[in-house]
Design goal:
Elements (H helix, E strand, L loop, with lengths): L1 H11 L12 E3 L13 E3 L2 E8 L2 E8 L4 H18 L7 H6 L6 E2 L2 H16 L9 H7 L10 H8 L7 E4 L2 E4 L12 H15 L5 E5 L2 E5 L8 E6 L9 E7 L3 E6 L4 E4 L2 E4 L14 E8 L2 H14 L1 H10 L3 E8 L4 E5 L2 E4 L3
Antiparallel strand pairs: 1-10, 2-3, 3-4, 4-8, 5-7, 6-7, 8-9, 9-12, 10-11, 11-18, 12-15, 13-14, 15-16, 16-17
Helix pairs in contact: 2-7, 4-8, 7-8, 8-9
Amino acid sequence: MECELKRLIKSFRKGIILLLVTATIMLVGGCDTMATHGRASQSRNQINETRLFLTTYCTITIHGSDDNNLLEQAFELLEELETLLSMTIPGSDIYRINNASGEPVSVDARTIEVIRAGIEFGVISDGMFDITIGHLSRLWDFGNENRIPQQDEITEAVSTVDYREIIIYGDTVQLLNPDAWIDLGAIAKGFIADEIAGFLTANGITSAFIDIGGDITTIGNRYDGRAWRIAVRDPFGVSYDDWVGVMEITNSSVAGSGTYARDFEYDGVHYHHILDTSTGMPVISDVVSATVVAENGLTAEGLSTIAILAGNDSAGSIFESVSGFIGAVLVLDGGEVLVFGDISFSGVRN
């Protein structure tokens, strides 16, 4: 994988935000496990391909099949879900909700499923995680302008954040605050990976690896019967190849969040994309990297963000309260590596 990553980074460094480079996790294996961007490749009775969706690279690898039509259908599903859940695509469910001036909007059942999950994450985190963060996240716009908003702008955006003002009735979603915006960016990739895994499983696939911008969902084991080996990136490392350790997963999902991803520095102050909904500023946390393993991608992705928002003192109890949580690896600001739950993790440093 290392040689293919170097090729991708060299090819796409200019003009494209390659979130794969800032991901907290990566598959451990040879270069033949990585798909070629833009076209399907085949080896060891497997098919795989990488395409650009959700402003990131998405790779689907299927073992034990040479059905390229199935692979194409999986990417069609990915595109369909992006057009439902994106905040910025005109006509998407989320776009229509955000621009309905507080009126109820009829949406797809899958959109409601993700919104309900987002509300539940708001409940278990006591509002630290809030999917009505849309105005605030767009205000900061990490990865594009990298500017520090004015305080009055931040104050106004924070006033629109409150997941409790989302009303779901039947197939409709309503924002009681007409100025609020929903942003599902912290959980949508995990949900999409889950949906693709469900589709592939329903079509007889027993081994697959789905990587949606660094959020990973697996079906079964690898082609050789062994568990998937996932490296956890060292947030203090000097290169992408520096890891804190390697975990093994089977038929589960793993997602990571970090304060060193999608960030910038100004006048000696570090600003990152994980925002405190009470202040509107990047959250101050002793957790700089959180990698979570769960039974599904939506849970893994949501909890990885919550772990940074809540900090080390609260993360463990939140993990234990969530059905489907399997384990986690947290890296603290002092470099300490903490392991939670029941996961196979081999550390390479302490």
